[in-house]
Amino acid sequence: MAFRASIKIRFGDEDHAGIVYYPRYFDFFHQAFEDLFESQGVPYRVCLDEDRIGWPAVHAEADFERPLRFGDVLDVDVSVERFGRSSVSFRYEGRRRADGERVVVGRTIVACVDLRTFRPMSVPTRYRDLFVAACGPAAVASDSS
What we know:
Elements: E1 3-8, H1 24-39, H2 44-50, E2 53-54, E3 57-64, E4 73-83, E5 87-96, E6 102-111, E7 113-114, E8 119-120, H3 125-135, E9 139-140
Parallel strand pairs: 4-9
Antiparallel strand pairs: 1-4, 2-7, 3-6, 4-5, 5-6, 7-8
């Protein structure tokens, strides 16, 4: 099970070659991440501003398989690959809606931090449950991350 977000490709997303400029995919992944919170009734702003919990990326990677162009719609499936004590590993699989062809696969590892101190903290049960509800269960890491 995965959470799905849809992102319309805008004119400003393209580079001079007329295809989506590769760094934009990381922004698309983050948009899907924010939408995941919203889908569970917790706006991302609440997490940041009220709960004072941040999720900075500590690792990001992507494999680009096919181009996208202005006007395409990218469907991004978000799943949790692994929970650590203070980190979560997300997988993003993007498909062009028009033909279902996979165009990108990405991964990010985010740290859970207290925004008052910017120190790592254990992933709160509320957010672990939110991620499981949206994306399904994932492996629990045996390390201390």
